[in-house]
Design brief:
Blueprint (H helix, E strand, L loop, with lengths): L25 H16 L4 E3 L9 E4 L9 E12 L2 E5 L7 E7 L2 E7 L5 E7 H14 L9 E6 L5
This protein binds zinc ion (ZN).
The site of zinc ion has 5 residues, from helix 2.
Length: 158
Amino acid sequence: MALRKIRTLGDPVLEKVAKPVTEVNEKIKELAYDMLDTMYTANGVGLAAPQIGVLKRIAVIDVSPEGNRPIVLINPVIVSASGSQTGDEGCLSVPGKAGCVTRPNEVTVRALNLKNQEIEVKGTELLARALCHELDHLDGIVYVEKVEGELRDVTLED
Ligand code: ZN
């Protein structure tokens, strides 16, 4: 595994639409493990491939407090969404900032996993928010476009 450089706001790669993965091969697995490594090292709860400069439809998420429940999503699509939640959001590509975004409170995503199996991930609250946020990255959308009010400066909690 290797750490990848996280691209930050202003990098044009973050505004591009990522391409579907055509085959879940060893290169894709290596990429996904690098993304997890990079996400955990940066203390993030999610990372999408465009954030490390790779325009492929892959996202990794782990919203567990222990950081031991990684979810790898390849070619994810939202198949249902309901409810709404409004709350703070941050992004590894927008360091030191947070802003308020409204998202669905419950979403179901269909994707492939690293074994090339179709999976369905149902998330509420933080997981639903993370799913929406990461899937947006695959379409070139950074959450700052959706912030209600101002982006704020935040300091690290620990
Ligand atoms: Zn992000």
